[in-house]
Write a structure and sequence with these properties.
Blueprint: H1 2-12, H2 22-27, H3 30-59, H4 65-77, H5 81-90, H6 92-119, H7 131-135, H8 137-148
């Protein structure tokens, strides 16, 4: 019942209640939702870092690396309306967004402080970005800079 109320409130506010993880996230308890957000932050960091690393490693060694990267990103972005609906229901759309959000996070962190700032994420679990920080890299950057001061 709470999930239905939450979905209705989100819809009235102009949001799609399935955008943040599909039916699983919609039905999750607050504790489960907090854990899903932690896992989502970690997965976005790992997936974004993996994509960035693969792009950089392949750029000079694999002639078609750029094309491969573009095709992969296009496939993530474009799907038929029916496929998008199914992806949204099961949370796969949110999963696909993790790659892009992770890449944007990596880029923003490196712009702000270079690779040494990004390395802070790997120093311990307390330094891992939350899902909210993945979406707002400035918040994580600020938290890391305050931790150093």
């Amino acid at each position: 019942v709470d999930a239905i109320k939450k979905a209705a409130a989100g819809t009235r506010a102009g949001q799609n209640p399935l955008d943040d993880g599909g039916v699983v996230a919609l039905l999750a308890t607050p504790e489960q939702r907090a854990m899903l957000d932690k896992i989502g932050g970690l997965m976005s960091l790992l997936e974004g870092h993996g994509d960035v690393t693969m792009d950089r490693a392949g750029a000079d060694r694999i002639p078609s690396a750029g094309r491969f990267s573009r095709v992969l990103r296009e496939r993530r972005r474009h799907a038929s309306p029916m496929a998008k609906m199914v992806q949204r229901l099961i949370g796969l759309e949110a999963k696909m967004a993790q790659y892009e959000q992770g890449e944007k996070f990596i880029a923003a962190v490196e712009r702000a402080g270079g690779p040494s700032l990004l390395e802070r994420a790997w120093e311990g679990p307390e330094n891992l970005p939350s899902l909210a920080e993945i979406r707002d890299p400035g918040a994580w950057i600020g938290r890391m800079r305050v931790a150093v001061a």
